[in-house]
Amino acid sequence: MINLSLVNGKSNILKKRFRLAHGKIKRLKREILTTAFVGIAACFSLHAHEDWQPTEQSQKEIHRPTPIPERVVLTWEGNPSTSQSVTWRTDTSVKKGLAQIAKANSSGRELKPATFDATTSFFKSDLNEAHYHSVTFQSLYPDTLYVYRVGDGANWSEYYHFKTASDQPRPFSFIYFGDAQNEVRTHWSRVFREAFRDAPRAAFTLHAGDLIDVNSSDAEWGEWHQGPDWVNGTIPVIATPGNHEYRRINQGPEAERFWSTKEGQAIEILVTSFKKESRENKTIYAVSYMGPKGKTGYFEINDGGNLVLVDKTMESLTGFDEDELLGSSVYASPLFDRQRQPGVPKVSKHWRNQFVYPIQDVPNESLKETVYFVDYQGVRIISMDSNKDLDLQVPWLRRALQANPNRWTIVTFHHPIFSPGSDRDNKELRRLWKPLLDEYRVDLVLSGHDHTYARTGKVDPNNIENVPTGYQQAYDPEIGTVYVVSVSGPKMYSITKGSFAKRVAENTQLYQIINVSEKELEFRAYKATGEMYDKFTLQKREGKPNLLIEALTSEIKK
Ligand SMILES: [Fe+2]
Q: Measured in angstroms, how far is the CA atom of residue 245 from the centroid of ligand 1?
């Protein structure tokens, strides 16, 4: 019995095992069937989505403000060793902005931040209505790490870090960008981020104008903030405005133009048609016009503004022949095409709402926060506005250079003193500002605008062409100033006048990292991919101009 029961017991166990195994097989079958069904369904669903087309999200939706702080950006309106300004944007439901700050610690929940009210202003852009909020933290300790956040009391940003400058000259680095301007999200973000990876402890980023293409485009400004993202909330921004940050007010119709004639007169031209065409991957503008006495004609310019086709009417109206006209910029010699009522330039309304800069007794209201200087650990960084009132800025620049206790001086403005484009010369800048840059032996001038790279240095004097009249070469060792033009965005022009420069580049997006210490300034330019493209060092010498030391060829890429 016992045995039998054992047998029976075993038999029961076997039966149970069989039932279990059978159950597993059934489950397995079910799983296989389910998988097969899902597979078939997936095939069906793929099949069903074949004619699906993606929908582009509207710019209005992408850049819609919310109660959550965004476009957070640090700038300085005061002394970087004792103050820090921050600006951010929300929707208009946030009536009052707040900012909290404390010395940074390593245990976030123990922070006991002080709270400050923001200045809030209403802003209507081409896409939306928003509130901009701004706070300047003051009476801070030098050389100290702080945490801060911004919000409205219910909705807060994350805590960001920033570090105040030392109140003494100390070594530091900063990053310089030429024009970002076009397809900023698509093609500029990676350049910014590569630069940040190379200099994560940079004291500030410097932007030499044309941060965007259309001054009033909220979407473009949104893209400019999105590339750096949280980095703008940690590393302050020094920016100078370019021509694309400007709009014109009281402007006449764009079609009403003046041209200069060989006899030195101005004739009235009416543009009757202006068409953008693409030919062999190049952009051409086809222009029909009517001149005096109803004479009609036709010409073409490329995307750099140079005449590539002219007609007999243009020759007879102006007195210039085809040889004199072809290849020249329509906006420069000999035609000097210009609007009859060009209007008054006015900086984008985005500028002063999002950037807070020092106001230092500038010549007029319109130059506030575009013309300023910031002193950082032994360096004076001066922003000039090369878009307007160049003559009015001269006495201001003299004062800024004269009363300068810093060892180093770096000046930034958008239009270059020496242009690598033969049709893009800025004579007025050389006439009005260069004498002062020479007199005070400014160390470095950082510009953009020309969508190429050109950096001055000592070049073979027997091999210089097209240097602007009056200059043997752009670099003068008796003065020592180095001038740089660079570009960080994807729009590119050609170099037609680069022999004055020690190093040039076309079709290359770049960023620059500059290290400054008491005795040396080391400048390095990198391609978007992170390869070093240019390097030089300036050595300070008592009572003498800087010594410019070129990098070894082996240090930089050909
Ligand atoms: Fe520009």
A: 9
Cα 541 vs. chain centroid, distance in angstroms?
33
- Is residue 301 within 8 A of residue 308, CB to CB? The reply is yes
pLDDT single digits (tens) 203-212: 999 999 999 9
The rounded Å distance from CA 244 to ligand 1 centre is 6
The identity of residue 388, as a single letter, is: K
308-334: per-residue pLDDT in tens?
A: 999 999 999 999 999 999 988 898 889
Q: Would you call 265 exposed, middle or buried from its count of C-beta atoms within 10 A (0-12, 13-18, 19+)?
A: exposed
What separation in Å is there between the alpha carbon of 426 and the centre of ligand 1? 12
Residues paired with residue 136 on neighbouring β-strands, in sequence order = 85
Could you tell me if 211 and 448 are in contact, meaning their C-beta atoms sit under 8 angstroms apart?
Answer: no
Q: State whether the Cα torsion 169-174-178-180 is positive or negative.
A: negative
- Residue 412 Cα to ligand 1 midpoint, Å, equals 13
Buried b (16+ CB within 10 A) or exposed e, 45-68: eeeeeeeeeeeeeebeeebebeee
Among residues 436, 427, 437, 416, which one has the least CA distance to residue 504? 416
What's the 112 CA to ligand 1 centre distance in angstroms?
45
Q: How far is the CA of 487 from the centre of ligand 1 (A)?
A: 10
User: How many A from CA of 437 to the centre of ligand 1?
Assistant: 21
Rounded to the nearest angstrom, the distance between the alpha carbon of 490 and the centre of ligand 1 is: 13
Please report, for residues 75, 84, 97, 157, the alpha-carbon distance to residue 230 in angstroms, rounded to integers and kept in the order given.
14, 16, 19, 10
CA of 218 to the centre of ligand 1 (A): 19
CA 388 / ligand 1 centre spacing (Å): 13
**Which residue is listed with tokens 């030098």?**
142
Three-class secondary structure of residue 211 per DSSP:
coil
- Per-residue pLDDT of 365-384, as tens digits, reads 999 999 999 999 999 999 99
> Domains of the chain (ranges plus CATH)?
64-163 (2.60.40.380), 172-248+344-557 (3.60.21.10), 256-339 (no CATH)
* Distance from the alpha carbon of residue 425 to the mean position of ligand 1, in angstroms: 12
- Residue 498 is predicted with a pLDDT of 77
- In the numeric block, the tokens 């994350």 are attached to 158
Between the CA of 179 and the centroid of ligand 1 the distance, in Å, is 7
Q: What is the pTM of this model?
A: 0.84
Using CA atoms, how far apart are residues 133 and 128, in angstroms rounded to an integer? 16
